[in-house]
Amino acid sequence: MGVGTVAGDVNRNDRSIVALVMLAHGMVHTYELSIPIFVAIWLGEFASIDLGLASVPVTTASLGVMTGLGFSLFGLGALPGGILVDRVGSKRLIVACLLGMAGSFVLLALSPNLVVVALALVVWGAAASVYHPAGLRLISTGVEERGTGFAYHGIAGNLGIGFGPFVTALLLLFFDWHLVAGVLALPALVAAALATRANFEEQAAVAAADGGAGTDTGDGGDTGGDDKAGAGVSSLAELVSQSKHLFAGGFALVFALVMFSGLYYRGVTTFLPDLLGSVIGIEPIPVSELLPAALASGSAGGAPTLDVELFVYAGLLTVGVFGQYVGGKLTDRIRTERGIVAGFGALAVIAVAFLPVASLGVGPLLAICALLGFFLFMVQPFYQATVAEYTPAGLRGLSYGFTYLGVFGVGALGGAIAGYILTVADSTALFFVLAGFAAAATLLGVTLLRRRPTPA
User: pTM of whole model > 0.90?
Assistant: First the structure.
């Protein structure tokens, strides 16, 4: 087989993998960031959570804990997902993830109360948890242009992040939230069907590197063809041993960094739609005011209203597409630690400035929201690539499992923390706490930058 044919095969393999992870990543975040839209609805629709022996009032704190159950499993399940993907491969877990998410939103559509809603969110979190270790392992071991793969992967995630809330908010203008949840289950079913048809080599990039004389992969050790690519861990003792190996080096700092990233991310996104409406004061607009006079003349007083804050929220998340793209491309051009320091430093400043700037008017509000969306997602390719640089290829699934245990497992506490602060204090206190999370991540990035030797 000639060189040109090999190159063509590699390109086709890259394209097949990137297409699959873009589809699945978009689906995961479509559902994840649609949930806060429903939270804004549940705050107004339900007065209490009936637990049988007791009844809990519906507040930002109680809903923060309730949604935190699902979001925590989104992260906690990443570790067993990472272990499993090193054993069985990525494709099977991605298909299972898509089917599980579809089932969770069917359950959400059938929910008669908030207890069943909480159960549906738990099912969603468990199903979605396996995606990131599976998808990111697949990119890191199968795609040769890894930084570009991370960039397109991130773009697809942000398209889901923006498109999901936008479509959800649009459908909620005209339909009950139960029906909307049922409709949202359909795309994951279609995506699962398409994923089963994907065909690629999961270890193509590792095999190509090993074929090039066992070069250093940037993870701190020479693979030399002896790395356990695709082997993973096969026992509890090996899990403990390999985990100690991971955390003995720079990965421990990376893990701490992604925990603070997760706390910031979940803390700012869970109640942001409600904050934009109630704190900053964006008023709903009757849909009839947006229609031509001929169509609006017959509108009744009960006509639907446009909750502008939901669409501002969706727009903020959509801006993250550009942040993901820029961050992904820069990981191939600059040291990832520098990108981490710059990105989280910007997020700290934005958190402090958000409310004062947003109160100045519509233009400043949209500008600060755009900056938040850009940097919130620009940092993700940097820490994803940093994980790959501090871990061996054969344990990449395990390392990404730990990573998303930190991002979405520990990070899920960000929603509960945000709900508690909004209940006992105010939004100003919340944004100062968020600034503290970003500042801590910045300092950890600086520490990594100083410890890692400059490449020759």
Answer: no
233-455 falls under which CATH superfamily? MFS general substrate transporter like domains (1.20.1250.20)
Residue spans per domain, the chain: 10-203, 233-455
Q: Which tokens in the block code for residue 102?
A: 């579809």
Q: Which two tokens stand for residue 198?
A: 């994907």
Written out in words, the top-level CATH class of the domain with range 10-203 is mainly alpha
Residue 48 is classified by DSSP as E
**Residue 5 in this model has a pLDDT that exceeds 70:** no
Cα 434 from Cα 436, distance rounded (Å): 5
Please give the structure tokens belonging to residue 143.
């795609």
pLDDT tens sequence across 367-399: 998 999 999 989 988 988 888 788 876 677 778
Contacts 24+ apart (CB under 8 A), 59-62: 59/419, 59/423, 60/271, 60/274, 60/418, 60/419, 60/422, 60/423, 61/416, 61/419, 61/420, 61/422, 61/423, 61/424, 62/419
Tell me whether domains 10-203 and 233-455 share a fold.
yes
The type of residue at 65 is V
- 32-45 pLDDT, tens per residue? 878 888 887 888 88
pLDDT at 298 over 50: no
| Secondary structure of residue 413 in the 3-state scheme | helix
CA-CA distances (angstroms) from residue 55 to 48, 52, 268, 374? 6, 7, 28, 40
